[in-house]
Amino acid sequence: MKKRLMAAMLVAGCWGMMFAQTKVIAHRGYWDCDGSAQNSITALVKASEAGAYGSEFDVSITADGVPVVNHDDDIQGHVIETSRYAEIKDLKLPNGETLPTLDQYLAKGKELPTVQLILEIKPHKQKANEDRAVKAIVDLVKKHGLEKRVDYISFSMNICKGLVKEAPGAPVYYLNGDATPAELKKLGMAGFDYHYKVVQKHPEWVKEAHELGMKTNSWTVDDRKVMQWLIDQKVDFITTDKPVELKQLLEKK
Ligand code: MG
Question: Are 45 and 73 in contact (CB under 8 A)?
Answer without folding.
Answer: no
